[in-house]
Write a structure and sequence with these properties.
Elements lengths: L2 H9 L2 E6 L14 H12 L3 E6 L11 E4 L2 H5 L5 E3 L5 H13 L15 E2 L3 H8 L1
Parallel strand pairs: 1-2
Antiparallel strand pairs: 1-3, 3-4, 4-5
Length: about 130
């Protein structure tokens, strides 16, 4: 595959941003194996989504935070980034992965259980991720 096609293939995917900084991904959130969560998410969706860990999304009150951003097709269909937290349950990680496999924001409805995790960050925080 040429470099241009490889870049285009990656750009056509959902992006999953996993907070791993100030509070998320640290012992401040007890009882969570954060490394296992990130590894499991990557294992389940790496071929269909870009998964990246970032230092801090500044939504510490919701630790651990995962943001699912739509693919270009999902955005065209009306999908917007979905902020989820606190994602401190391995089953929730599996539900997120299943939703991404189904198409993610704009292309597939999330499992109902994810309604319990969805939240709206401040505009300042939201803009920082989308830049």
């Amino acid at each position: 595959m040429s470099r241009r096609k490889a870049v285009a293939a990656v750009a056509a995917r959902c992006t999953v941003t996993v907070c791993r900084g100030c509070c998320c991904g640290t012992p401040k959130v007890p009882g969570m194996d954060d490394a296992a969560q990130l590894a499991e998410l990557k294992a389940q969706v790496a071929t269909i989504a870009r998964v990246r860990a970032v230092n801090c999304l500044d939504a510490c009150e919701q630790a651990d935070v995962i943001v699912v951003q739509p693919s270009p097709a999902g955005r065209t269909a009306g999908g917007r980034p979905v902020w989820l937290g606190p994602v401190n349950d391995p089953d929730a990680t599996g539900d997120i992965a299943a939703w991404i496999r189904a198409g993610g924001p704009g292309l597939a409805e999330p499992p109902d259980i994810l309604d319990l995790y969805a939240f709206d960050p401040s505009r300042r925080v939201r803009r920082a991720l989308e830049d």
